[in-house]
Design a protein that fits this description.
The protein has 646 residues and is α+β, with helices and mostly antiparallel strands. It has 22 helices and 29 strands.
């Protein structure tokens, strides 16, 4: 190999285009090889050993193996004294290849190729989750994720709850049920229709203080998140966004996961949110005071950009009037413009009350010298005149700016200052000004009073309406559709309702009725907390509540609500008659071991009964609503068919 290295080096050095200052340009060689540069190929073919090593004959035609050549040239022994052994790029590498260019290097974790149904209650934290392998169990996954039937329809408005006569895409929806299955159900109707997804998922802190299963390990959490992000992203409309709030516990994993799922070019921003004052410590045993949370924002399209803050122009800064008291001292020609020059005693600057008819003074410093047309003009033509004219000499430049004056004034720095100044009138092209959103948000005050919002309590999991409103104001318009599939206390739905956006909220927990629904009933009645005053909320509107139609989930709910072993025995009898049991269970064997079951601790009995249920049939498949064993009512059948035909 060493002889081939030497031969290749000597051969390439014969081409002056590949040499600089007596050294071979390794990067240039690789670049030309990958581009199949004819000149380089011709040079390589001159050497018998090199031709034999890097070319393959196919039916009498020599084919250049550019990948083999690239790897050979990238070898550390080749040109160790060249300008650099690396490309002009920063990034992680494996065996000399950048991770972003290698399809073999990806974020991996146990169960990545699985679907995790992932219930979100305390009992689920105590049992083994079912991971359905995508390759080995496609039939089970198809059945698990097939659209589910809906039931328990109610419409809420100012007059209370009513039966639902018909459904439309304009309805606001709140759905009770497993969010993964609900998202796959919604896909049938809402794919490509959601303008904003905001989620506040479990942070994986090891604490389940707000009832979610919040103690997954990294691999289970990543699988849990991937399954849901993958399907929810398919619901986004063109130009839509997804916002994911998280803490430091999983931020790095989450961003890498999202980059992989959505593509790095769809990442738009990470907003850093101050959620509590740094001087306030919740518990004294923490390693550090965790005061910041994060919101990752991804766009539906690579080409779309985050909107800017648009503000109505005000005249507060327009306070200057320039009076020319004498004829100009001289004129200069700059870029074909006849520039009038006024010495300090030939003009005066008057400061008056703000008015759109006056001028604003702007110091020419920093990026203004490069990114602003007036700054660039000053640097190119006027800054150098400081040695010719006294400080504060004024220049009147015609045909510049988009204000009503038709010219722009500049003056040299005053004595001891290095920055010049220009004066401009209020721009006429638009009634608003634009600036980018900051990526640091201070919501400490709002978080301090969040418990009082909406008239419901939700310990350690509640977000202020003003925070959600910030994102909705930035990323949506009136009547746009917003989705939150970790509804929790209902903040997203409440904020969307008050801001006149349509919304869909999903949650599995039983508190959805005592917390989320009660909060939304208050919103309709005109409750005055949160952003109500800010948006002038007076009440009104409606929403439709429904549930994924439960099959085996009914028994899981009963098992978790049971108080003693006698109740569990009764549930088991009902399960044998009506439940869909796992194929792994032989009921006869179980009946023969009742004494063994009775000897188990109560929690183990609960866990066992949950495990013997077929997790693919927690909810009723929409395709099987006519199956009598599910006992779907005729009214529900009618509404389901209407919903899936929307």
């Amino acid at each position: 190999m060493q002889n081939l290295l030497n031969d290749l080096t000597l051969l390439l050095e014969q081409d002056n285009h590949l040499v600089a200052e007596g050294k071979l340009l390794k990067n240039k060689v690789v670049e030309l090889a990958l581009a199949l540069d004819p000149r380089l190929i011709k040079q390589l073919l001159k050497h018998d050993a090199i031709r034999k090593h890097f070319f393959v004959e196919v039916e009498g035609v020599l084919v250049f193996d550019k990948i083999k050549f690239q790897r050979f040239v990238s070898n550390k022994q080749f040109l160790p004294d060249s300008y650099t052994a690396f490309k002009n790029k920063i990034g992680l590498t494996a065996d000399g290849e950048y991770l972003t260019e290698s399809k073999e290097v990806v974020l991996s974790w146990p169960y990545k190729d699985c679907v995790l149904e992932g219930g979100q209650d305390k009992e689920d934290a105590k049992r083994n989750e079912v991971f359905w392998n995508e390759t080995l169990a496609p039939d089970q996954i198809d059945r698990l994720l097939s659209p589910k039937a809906l039931t328990s329809f109610k419409r809420y408005d100012k007059d209370g709850a009513h039966p639902v006569a018909e459904l439309s895409l304009n309805d606001n929806l709140i759905i009770k049920g497993n969010n993964l299955l609900a998202l796959h159900t919604l896909r049938e109707v809402y794919a490509g229709k959601v303008n904003l997804i905001y989620i506040d998922p479990p942070y994986n802190t090891g604490s389940d203080s707000f009832h979610y299963n919040d103690s997954f390990n990294h691999s289970a959490w990543l699988t849990f998140m991937r399954n849901r992000l993958e399907i929810s992203y398919k619901l986004l409309a063109s130009g839509g966004y997804i916002c994911i709030q998280c803490s430091f516990h999983e931020y790095a994993y989450l961003k890498t996961l999202c980059d992989d799922l959505f593509g790095e070019k769809r990442w738009r921003a990470t907003f850093n949110i101050l959620v509590r004052h740094p001087d306030r410590t919740l518990t004294g045993d923490k390693e550090f005071n965790d005061v910041v949370e994060y919101t990752l924002v991804y766009s539906q399209s690579e080409s779309q950009r985050l909107p800017s803050i648009k503000e109505v122009k005000v005249d507060d800064d327009y306070v200057y009037q320039i009076d020319l008291t004498k004829p100009p001292h001289t004129t200069l020609t700059c870029d074909a413009k006849e520039v009038e020059v006024y010495l300090p005693d030939q003009y005066r600057v008057l400061k008056k009350n703000p008015s759109s008819n006056l001028l604003k003074s702007i110091s020419i410093r920093g990026s203004l010298k490069e990114k602003n047309s007036s700054g660039r003009f000053f640097v190119k033509h006027l800054e150098c005149l400081g040695s010719t004219y006294p400080p504060l000499t004024l220049f009147k430049v015609p045909n510049m700016g988009d204000d009503a004056f038709g010219h722009r004034f500049f003056h040299l720095p005053k004595e001891g200052n290095k920055n010049g100044t220009y004066f401009q009138g209020m721009p006429q092209s638009t009634d608003t000004t634009e600036r980018p959103y900051p990526n640091f948000l201070d919501f400490v005050e709002e978080y301090n009073i969040v418990n009082s919002e909406g008239g419901v309590e939700f310990r350690n999991g509640k977000k202020p309406e003003s925070l959600i409103a910030y994102y909705m104001e930035m990323l949506t318009n009136k009547n746009d559709l917003v989705l939150d599939y970790y509804l929790g206390s209902g903040t997203t739905a409440a904020t969307a309702h008050k801001m006149r956006r349509r919304y869909i909220g999903i949650d599995q927990m039983d508190y959805i009725k005592e917390v989320s629904i009660e909060r939304m009933k208050g919103v309709i009645q005109g409750e005055a907390s949160g952003i109500s005053d800010q948006v002038g909320w007076q009440g009104g509107g409606s929403f439709v509540y429904c549930e994924l139609s439960r099959a085996n989930q009914i028994f899981i709910d009963q098992i978790q609500a049971a108080k003693n072993s006698e109740e569990l025995q009764a549930i088991w009898q009902a399960m044998q008659a009506r439940a869909f049991l796992s194929y792994k269970l032989d009921p006869k064997t179980f009946d023969a071991s009742k004494n063994e079951f009775a000897s188990l601790a109560f929690e183990d009995q609960q866990r066992f009964l949950v495990e013997v249920l077929d997790k693919n049939l927690l909810y009723v498949p929409y395709s099987e609503i006519d199956d009598a064993s599910y006992a779907v009512s005729e009214e529900d059948k009618k509404l389901n068919r209407q919903f899936f035909n929307l």
